[in-house]
Specification:
43% of the residues lie in helices and 22% in strands. The chain has two domains: 161 residues, 3-Layer(aba) Sandwich (Rossmann fold); 179 residues, RecF/RecN/SMC, N-terminal domain (Glutathione S-transferase Yfyf (Class Pi), Chain A, domain 2, Up-down Bundle). The chain is globular. It is built from ten helices and 14 strands. The strands form three sheets. It has a six-stranded antiparallel sheet, with helices on one face. A five-stranded parallel sheet has the order 8-12-13-3-14, sandwiched between helices. It has a three-stranded antiparallel sheet with strand order 9-10-11. It is α/β, with parallel strands linked by helices.
């Protein structure tokens, strides 16, 4: 559990000290008062990075450095960010690290307004959703994903050279296909985990009886994905060279969600979209708890007002089980849904 958080020169905060309860914490204030900045600092303390801002933009514009100090159960954490040269250092109980260790990650579920675009937006949003879930639960997945992006970037650079041939790319194609096969297996497995829960979650949120299906969608056959991708890369060389980028691989795959067999990406109403996204978030909470053995933190950035009464009530029942941080401009909208007392945190950062 996050007990305290102290911010120094973090975005809009010159300084700020916050204490949290182990249940629902409501962060209230007008727009541009620092509510999201506080959530970003919490996210950085659990994951090593913010969910919107890069490291440079986490520093107050009047300062050359920023510092986030947090207390989790029996551990003190400090993150120090310097502007010039840009650097970030992590300290865990006086032990300094240059990178955020995987075993120090605290499972965290984030729900923010852009997630309501998950269905209708670009496939990249849906890939990022499942990649974030995997990074938090599967040791080494984050490193695997970075390796794939690095090899993909190199292949794309080579494609832009006029004298390049398929033979020059073969070594990179083999590497790319090998890593891609592993990414596919992870993503496919977690898509199946989501499928086990999504219909029940959706029905409890929406009050309707539609059946949902979530499947992993790819232009590459799922059987022997790596070998099939290697063939596609070889045979598609001319097309890839003409457009200057790689047209096949996990970076082009998607998650397909259907409601009673209709593709939700194209046909879901606004209410259905909210229910699907909320159902996914509830599944995410459950998967993270099962896989890590820890209760995740739940961060809700200004989404409570986006949900109607039914969806608020369903979400409220879930929130009672987790340490939750909710930002809002209207605390009354949130407070009425909780029988237990809430910790109210005003912001003026």
């Amino acid at each position: 559990m996050l007990q305290t958080l102290e911010l120094t020169h973090v975005r809009s905060y010159k300084s700020g000290l916050f204490q949290f309860s182990d249940s629902v914490n409501i962060i209230v204030g007008p727009n541009a008062s620092g509510k999201t900045n506080l959530l970003e600092a919490i996210h950085m303390s659990t994951q090593g990075e913010a969910f919107k801002s890069d490291d440079l933009n986490m520093i107050n514009h009047n300062s050359d450095w920023a510092r986030i100090d947090s207390r989790y159960d029996n551990e003190n954490r400090t993150i120090k960010i310097k502007k010039s040269p840009l650097s970030k250092i992590f300290v865990f109980d006086d032990i300094e690290k240059k990178r955020f260790p995987a075993d120090k990650t605290i499972p965290t579920v984030l729900f923010e307004p852009t997630h309501l675009l998950l269905l209708g937006g670009e496939p990249e949003r849906r890939r990022a959703y499942i990649d974030n879930l995997l990074t938090q639960t599967e040791a080494g997945y984050g490193t695997l994903l970075k390796s794939y992006k690095r090899v993909l970037s190199q292949r794309n650079r080579l494609l832009k050279q006029e004298t390049i041939s398929p033979e020059h790319l073969f070594v990179w194609d083999v590497q790319l296909a090998d890593i891609a096969g592993k990414i596919f297996e992870y993503r496919k497995k977690y898509t199946d985990f989501l499928q086990e829960q999504i219909t029940d979650n959706y029905q409890s949120v929406s009050g309707n009886e539609e059946v949902l299906e979530i499947t992993y969608e790819s232009k590459i056959p799922s059987i022997q994905y790596a070998n099939e991708l290697l063939k596609k890369l070889k045979h598609g060389f001319a097309v890839d060279q003409a457009r200057g980028f790689t047209g096949y691989g996990p970076h082009r795959d998607d998650l397909k969600i259907t409601i009673n067999k209709y593709d939700a990406r194209d046909n879901a109403s606004r209410g259905e979209t909210r229910s699907v996204v909320l159902a996914l978030k509830l599944a995410e909470l459950n998967i993270l708890e099962q896989k890590t053995g820890k209760k995740p933190l739940l961060l809700l950035d200004d989404v409570f007002s986006e949900l109607d009464g039914k969806r608020r009530r369903t979400l409220s029942e879930t929130l009672q089980k987790y340490q939750t941080f909710i930002t809002t401009t209207d605390a009354d909208v949130v407070i009425e849904h909780f029988s237990k007392s809430c910790n109210i945190i005003p912001t003026n950062g």
